[in-house]
UniProtKB/TrEMBL annotation:
Region (Disordered): 1-20
The protein, known as: GNAT family N-acetyltransferase
Chain segments annotated as coiled-coil in the UniProt record: none
Single annotated GO MF: acyltransferase activity, transferring groups other than amino-acyl groups
Gene3D superfamilies referenced in this protein's UniProt entry, alphabetically: 3.40.630.30
N-acetyltransferase domain span: 5-143
Keywords linked to the UniProt accession: Transferase
SUPFAM superfamilies tied to this protein: Acyl-CoA N-acyltransferases (Nat)
Stretches that traverse the bilayer: none
Annotated Acidic residues bias: 9-20
Family matches, as PROSITE patterns: GNAT
Length: 143
């Protein structure tokens, strides 16, 4: 999905922490969240091209994350989106994605992401943020 991220809503949620870039010292927490909630994520801390992670805390724990990963000079790529199961349904993924999308548009002029057709919940979040679908074909070598 690609978009200009025309996202004007507030990043503040009632009783939730602020969204922001995480320190490298928090990479282990990001990795643990991804392992538990999004084990097939292509973006993980420390992988080449994964620049930085943003997140939001709820109840003192890292609740949702997203990365600036594999961005190009004219488009920032949102990746590695995940929310702890116990914090789903509270809009945290949307807040993190909105915030990262704004940062990517500010830095690169545009923002994009990839999402599987089998993830309708994520697609709804991204479409609410202003992303629009562009179908692409991809393959993976097995063996």
């Amino acid at each position: 999905m690609a978009g200009r991220a025309e996202v004007g809503c507030s990043d503040e949620g009632e009783g939730e922490g602020e969204v922001g870039w995480l320190d490298d010292s928090e990479n282990a927490q990001v990795a643990a969240l991804l392992a538990a909630e999004a084990p097939s994520s292509y973006a993980v801390p420390g992988l080449a091209g994964v620049r930085r992670w943003a997140g939001v805390r709820a109840g003192g724990e890292l609740a949702a994350v997203a990365a600036d990963a594999w961005s190009a000079p004219t488009v920032g790529l949102l990746a590695g989106v995940a929310t702890r199961a116990r914090h789903r349904g509270r809009g945290l993924a949307g807040r993190v994605c909105r915030w990262v999308s704004r940062e990517l548009v500010a830095a690169y002029g545009r923002a994009a992401l990839m999402v599987d057709d089998t993830n309708p919940a994520a697609i709804r979040v991204y479409e609410r943020l202003g992303y629009r679908r562009r179908r692409v074909a991809a393959s993976r070598a097995v063996g």
